[in-house]
Amino acid sequence: MKPELVKEAAQVIPDPQILINVVSRRVRQLNSGRPQLVPSTGERLGIADIALLEIIHGKVTYDESIDPNL
User: Fold this and answer.
1) 47-56 and 16-31 are packed helices; what angle lies between their axes, rounded to 10 degrees?
2) Distance of CA 50 to the CA centre of its chain
3) Which residues make Cβ contacts (< 8 Å) with residue 16, sequence separation at least 6?
4) Distance of CA 8 to the CA centre of its chain
């Protein structure tokens, strides 16, 4: 993962545990064939970097109101 993308995504999702969970879930979705939600930039990006970009651009969000203990 590119450190600058992690820093930018942390501005959107400040809790590191939630950010990791959102990125890992999105990586699984991308690996299973779901289309990416941001256009390719031309530079070689890993799947985690694509997930981070989707978070940065507001294409992937999370709901804080869901109880994680359920």
Assistant:
1) 120
2) 7
3) 10
4) 11
